[in-house]
Amino acid sequence: MATLSSNSEENLNEVQHNASVKEEPEDPTIQTSDILLSQDVMCDSCMDSPSKALKSCLTCLVSYCEAHLRPHLENIKFQNHRLVDPRHDIDCRTCEVHQLPLERFCLTDGCCVCLDCESQEHEGHTIASIGEACSQIEAEMQKKQEEISQSTSAAERAIEKLQSNNDLIKSSVQEICVLVEEQFARMQATVEEARKGAMEVLEGEQRQALRQAEGIQAHLEQKRTGLMKTLAQMNKMSRSKSDIDFLQEYSDWKKGVADVRLPNVYVNRMDYLTSYVQVVTDATQELCDLILSSYRDKLSMFCKGGTKLTMPESQLSSLPDPETREDFLKYTKSLTFDPDTTHHFLRVTEDNRKLTNTSPWQHSYPDHPDRFEYWRQAITSQSVYLGRHYIEAELSGEGAHVGVTYKSIDRKGEQSACCITGNDFSWCMGRNSRGFFTWHAGLETALEVTDIKRIGLYVDFHQGSVSFYGVTGPMRLLHKYKADFIEPLYVTVWLSKKDNVVSLVKER
């Protein structure tokens, strides 16, 4: 037989010693099963009657009595098997390095270890037994669960308040709309009253002019009747038979003849009404301009003051602004892209942190109301809201853009306002064939950088700022925007060209 290993020899000597001890006479009336105790480990190979195990093999994960243990002691094939005192938990997980049971837990590294690991690789670490570690971690988990439960309850209460506030907003706006309608109805009544007044003035001028014309016409008609009578008398005189009669009649007619001259007739064409029209037109234009400018300016000032997000003083951070990259990393925000928003030409990978433009290859994403249909963009699932937030992203290719926007951005339109470079509620940075730029409200700002592979996006919601940093080398501020945020922000990526890539760096 081949030479046994030292481990096997030790185990064999121990077994022989135990066997010699067992050679004392026993009471034959006592059955084997009667002397076995409940805490004893049984041999896993004894089928007919149970026998007390002498050793447990950590390699086979089986316990053996003296008879069934002999192959492990005499056969060279089992020389590398590790024999220990009988164990009830022989089938528990063992250390892959030392093949010993994982009986301890390293609180420093957060992993289960065996006794050899504790004395070697994890020497000096805080170590506890599996039971103690479980009790401690369960207590921590229970405390964490209570905190999460409290936060969940607080979130539910906040949601209820928001919903109640939404209902209040709707009812308040409806009430205000009624009042506004009343004011505009009042204004319309005033305009109608002014219109009636203007029309009455015109009608009065018309009546006066017509009465004047009627009086003149009556006078002319009367004058015409007298003239026609005189003309008849003159015709009668011309038919006299003798000159003496003619002269006599003429002398008599001349004494009583009326004035045949007509007075100067004034025809009032009311040319001055043209000026009246000009006065009404100028006054109307002045009032319209005054109404529009007054409403626009005053309501605009009111809305700017009313919609600006204000936080309680207790929530405002008194900490200094971050300066080094280590300072910024304290506000690192872990984000992932929402697959339901991803354009069909974009592939999302690496746990939804990486986007790649695969044009012209499309992906069979299901239809969704949040999905971008024209602009090749995607939005993160998580929002950036209240406080300070820092995100790092890696950009690759001319056409890769990353920034923040409101969730209300249009997902289906083709207008420039549907892209994060073309509206006044988006702030982004990217690269095109001309270099690196930042964009807001359609206005681009050139950056004095030549090559950046990783950028830092810093949002201070309370201070109302969005800043872009270059982190490829030393931390460098590239551009900073000031804004009054009225909604939570979402990190958004636009990949305009094939093979463009943007990856959100996972927090450490």
From TrEMBL:
Pfam families documented for this protein: PRY, SPRY, TRIM_CC, zf-B_box
Organism, as annotated: Seriola lalandi dorsalis
GO cellular component: cytoplasm
Keyword Coiled coil set for record: yes
Residue stretches of biased makeup (Polar residues): 1-19
One term of GO molecular function: zinc ion binding
Region (Disordered): 1-29
Protein name: Tripartite motif-containing protein 16-like
Lineage per the UniProt record: Eukaryota, Metazoa, Chordata, Craniata, Vertebrata
Keywords, alphabetical: Coiled coil, Metal-binding, Zinc, Zinc-finger
All residue ranges annotated as the B30.2/SPRY domain in the record: 315-508
Coiled coil: 127-161
InterPro entries: B30.2/SPRY (IPR001870), B30.2/SPRY_sf (IPR043136), Butyrophylin_SPRY (IPR003879), ConA-like_dom_sf (IPR013320), E3_ubiq-ligase_TRIM/RNF (IPR051051), PRY (IPR006574), SPRY_dom (IPR003877), TRIM8/14/16/25/29/45/65_CC (IPR058030)
